[in-house]
Amino acid sequence: MDWIGWTTFGIAVVGATLGVFNAWWMVRRDSVRLRVRLVSLMTLPDGQWTIGIEVTNLGYIPVTLSEVALRRHAYWGKRMVVHSDYFNQVKLPLRMEPRTQITVAAEPNVRGQIKKARCRWCTATTACGVTVRKRFGRL
To answer: What residues form the membrane-spanning segments (predicted)?
Structure first.
């Protein structure tokens, strides 16, 4: 093979690599990507500790968050749904723009209920049916 053949082969390899990378990036960009984690919060009026579920939209498309819950198991069993924010800042369902973050705070007495129910997972569900799960440690 002469230098023209090797140059053509090199350009073809670079083009194929860039095509695969571009296809991967487009699929990744158009998917729902959320991060969910359990955080500890203090209520200012009375100084009680409560928990909150922090949800971050990591994707490039807006998503509608429909449910935030605590679960004993990741995929089955009863769940403790956090229906409303204790601080009255978040109302579900909520449209989350790309790169935004919210924290849904539970009632201050929920810590005892979580320990009693032995919940170990926090979940966030979108309107399109995507559920993100995160395991947390002991409270």
So the answer is: 6-27
